[in-house]
Amino acid sequence: MSDALDVLIVGSGVAGLTAAVKFATSSEKRGLKVGVLTKGELDDSTTRFAQGGVAAVLGSEEDSVDLHLADTIKAGDGLCDIEAVSVLVKEGPKRVQELISLGAVFDREPGGNFLLAREGGHSKARVLHANGLATGAEIERALVTAVKQTVAKVYENWTALSLEVDNNKVVGVNAIDEKGVSVFIRSDIVVLATGGAGQLFSVTTNPHEATGDGIAMALRSKAYVADVEFIQFHPTALFHPKMPRPLLSEALRGHGATIKDKNGDRFVDELLPRDKVSYAMAKKMEEHDVDHLFLDATELNDFAVRFPTIYESLKSVDIDPSVDYIPIAPAAHYICGGIATDLNGATSIEGLFAAGEIACTGIHGANRLASNSLLEGMVFGARLVDAILDGVTKADSTGVLGTLAKNKYIKELNLNFTQITVDAVNSQLSNSQLSKSQLSNSQLSNPQVNPSQLSNPNAKSEEIAHLRSDMQHLMSKYMAVQRAPEGMSYALTKIKQIESKILDMKVLTEDLNAYVSLLNLITLSFAVIESAIVRQESRGCHFRVDFDKKDDVNFLGRIVHK
């Protein structure tokens, strides 16, 4: 049996699984062979951590797609692609209904109508939840069930290493299987849906696996990547040593919870977009010289019934929200930029598509509106399938990629040193002698490579973990809610030194995944820092202490890496 595929989807969050299900249910007569590759288990993604819900206009007389569009554009602070946002809000309700048809169950009122919540930045209540605040887990459950029943091949516990590109056309993915063996998977179409990069930071709501793999792979393959300086910090993450930081959903604030300082005083409108709330909190923490603030939910009725997931999380750390103020602090949550795409999810490399948090569709601009992320994955995960089934392999002149193709951007940065990470990964695998030209179909299904060939006792997993922690603390100190030029330059210098240390390693097979993840984080950190240095203004979730105002004259546009 051959592992050569027609379509390989890398990632198992809402975008990747939506695409996989739609391929399986739409392409039977076309005979496409579709595979899904994920670095963990199929249901082990950032999606399952999503509490905020899905924002969609589902027939409410008080709401409209125009209002949803306006709220999204306002939150994006001048950088949203209006055409992309229009696609999102218009197609979103249909995708929600499709998900329900797959078995997803959303909370309803006693009369049967959807129980809708209002969250930060939304002018109306339009956010659906499942089982209180377990929305991501419910969406993941429904999609995983459908994928297991329909997809031809599932690669669980595999790590994607790099894209194989020939003459600007993708031809497959180099990966490591669950045994540490290097394998090339040939595929005419590759869909990157690997999710976010919260692990750039020491304090994040994202799981350990959120290491920016797909964006780093795209950078190394010279695909256009844009807007990566815009990293959203969720204002109300539980202040606790537990990682990832438990998320205290915006739905709490929509229900009436308030943010208070150490004196018990309220100082911010809790229903502003996340960037503004996080910035107000950072300033207050700096003013009072403290490392956290408080969420007051003591006036909320039926907390345990309305928010069972959060209630159990708080209970596990001995906090009773009915009587205790909840300690909170901003935590890295979502990367608003990523691989530049058109409105079909096509990228600047032929045959390569991207969807979900990994993609820069232009929807989020400089700051994501709450609960638009799951919706984006559902909408654009489905759109790229329709395009591929129609024979599309190249991007058109729509969306962010269309704008960049017309040279309408602020500056193009060329990260030449990212080639170092390509060479590093290749050197770790060089003993395997595995290449496209050497792989027959039988080898693809049963590769004859001895994992011990990759072994070298010079590196230990503890050392890799230590270097990863050093990088994360640098990013958290100098690249979080507030950024200063000296700090950013210092972080860049120190992270380059960390890269030099890891490049000198020869890793054991069992450490290879951790090694690759750190290299991906380092690659992406370079792009994030350099973009933030270039953007000499404060916009959305990028705040410069030396340029604390928005500058539409010089910076109303995108910074792109190629």
Instruction: Assign the CATH topology of the domain at 235-331.
Output: Flavocytochrome C3, Chain A, domain 1
* Largest sheet geometry: 7 strands, mixed
- Share of helix among residues? 25-40%
Q: Quick one: how many beta strands?
A: 19
What is the CATH homologous superfamily assignment of the domain at 235-331? Succinate dehydrogenase/fumarate reductase flavoprotein, catalytic domain
> pLDDT under 50 segments (min length 5)?
47-51, 431-458
State Rg: 22 Å
Q: CATH first level of the domain at 235-331: which class?
A: Alpha Beta
Q: DSSP helix count?
A: 17
The outline comes out as: globular
* Category by helix and strand content: alpha/beta
Instruction: Round the mean pLDDT to the nearest integer and report it.
Output: 86
The CATH architecture of the domain at 235-331: Alpha-Beta Complex
Give the DSSP E fraction (strand runs of 2 or more residues). 15-25%
